[in-house]
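Changelog note: in this version the structure field was regenerated for every chain. One regenerated record is shown below for reference.
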Amino acid sequence: MPIKKLLYLLSTLIFYPICAQRKKTDTVYVYEKVVVYDTVYLEKPLKIKPSGLNFKPAVIDNLIPVTTQYEFILIKDTTKGLIISPKKFDWGTGAGIGLKSSSWARESSKNRQQPGFNAGLWISRNMYKRFSMMLSAHVYYWNSTFNLDANREETWLNGYYFTDDRQPLLFQKFSDKHFEYAAQLKIFYEWKRIRPFVGFLANRNIYKMQFMVPENNIINKLDDFKSKNINIGYSMGIQYRIMQKILVSLEYQAYTMKNISLKNSSFNFDIFKTNNTFAERKINLGISYTISSW
């Protein structure tokens, strides 16, 4: 028994130091720092003298200033350079209201201003830089300011009249209500949104006077005597572009009616004296719309 205890004690003394020298295994974490570098390129102009190289600069041929009236332009690449070709033609429609004053109707009417409205078509072409030319055709309708009716009242035109071949005519009605057909040629100058203009016009007023005329030697037929005179005058005014295709305008027109006559192809008669001259003036407020360009 003592021997066993001795052996146990010896073995404890021998193996304890050995076990005490064993190292404990630890986990080691290694971290790596990653740095990302970007490449930055710098451009610097260099003064280099070309040797034996000839460069021909681009030339813009037939340059035409493009104003707000053009919606698109056409650019062509040629050996001579760039050619800028704006659209030169516009066409559209217009309408408006106005007042008309006629010198020959002043004595017959208390209202000197005759109201009316109009509608028409126009075509415009660019001429030079800011200048353009317009050709238009309009139809006007003017309301009546006076009516002479022999069946209702005594008028200064009541009575019988006779043609050159002695046929009797009996006056019935006359009104200054009428249609007017007008053609105009205008020259515009465009500055920003403002377009002043001047022009020439030719118009035809269709006045009608009604008579009772003979048929089979009996005065029992109503017939009209109409004016067919073509009058020449001028116009001036200003347009303002409120949108790309919409313009408003204020216009003044004046023309002279020379040798006005009311005639009927079946009767050689004219109630107006020869060599008469009358003047008419108009003020119109209108709006125009550009339909297309090319």
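Spot check on this record: The helical segments are 2-20. Residues 92 and 290 are 4 Å apart (CA to CA).
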